[in-house]
Amino acid sequence: MPSISKCNVCANNVDADKELKCDACDKPVHTTCSGLSRAEIKCLNDKDRRIKFLCENCSSDRLQLGDLVKMMLEMRDEINALKKASSSTLSDAIYRENLISEMNERNLRSRNIIIHGLDECEGTIEDQKKEDLRQVVNVIDKVAPVSTDHIMIYRLGRAAMKDKVRPIKVVLNSRDDAVLLLKNKAKLPRNGKLYITADETLMQREFLKSVRLTLHNRIQNGESNLTIKYIRNVPTIVSSKNATPAQH
Fold first, then answer.
1. Which phi and psi (to 5°) does residue 19 adopt?
2. 215 and 164 in contact (C-beta within 8 Å)?
3. How far apart are CA 106 and CA 238, in angstroms?
4. What does pLDDT average to in each consecutive run of 10 residues of the chain (248 residues)?
5. Strands 19-21, 28-30: parallel, antiparallel or unpaired by DSSP?
6. Do 114 and 165 meet the contact criterion of CB atoms below 8 Å apart?
7. Nearest 5°: phi and psi at 206?
8. CATH number for the domain running over 1-65
9. CB within 8 A of 180, min separation 6: which ones?
10. According to the CATH classification, is domain 110-198 in 2.40.50.140?
11. Long-range contacts from 75-81, C-beta under 8 angstroms, 24+ separation
12. pTM of the complete model
């Protein structure tokens, strides 16, 4: 049977399971005499509570303001930490998804090359495809000993406008074929019209664009003998009089 004691406010009996005890004098008070809300009483009954209850005789403030402020600040810090952790986890997840998507896209494009500067002929669609294939095979034969059997070709973009020809995407038989052609692309005449590039993703093109802008700014600031060279398939600004500029 629970013990019975006197309420320090009304002096009536109070059951132990319906009382609050002052954290200063340890005297019991009816929960109904405490003047606290249900939520506040629930907080005080929590074993891990961080606030103290003082009776009217010990303090005019039932809740110590300093402890309450401290608890609120701690809770704020905990909430901010949770938000930060949640945001970080979400950012990491998005980053991983984007990275996987980019890797898959690069893998799909790894056996492709883009040939720029091949004239577009007139005639039927079939005639145009035959002429495009003939020109592509001719370029490949000049660059490297790569099989052109079963290759696929596509003109990129809409129909050609005046004085502008569409590049051709070439899907080769293997990634090794694409690598070999890209390594030997300098064998083509350096007239600026006909050249070969890799089939790059949007991210790769944007990165190359930023590298070119950096190169331009450095040259404008007085640096010389700079060019862009592909190192481990990454466009990099190098300082070399003999470096062969990257064609992209």
1. -125, 160
2. no
3. 25
4. 70 78 80 75 68 66 52 60 63 76 88 93 89 95 94 86 84 94 89 88 90 92 88 81 52
5. antiparallel
6. no
7. -65, -40
8. 3.30.40.10
9. 144, 146
10. no
11. none
12. 0.56
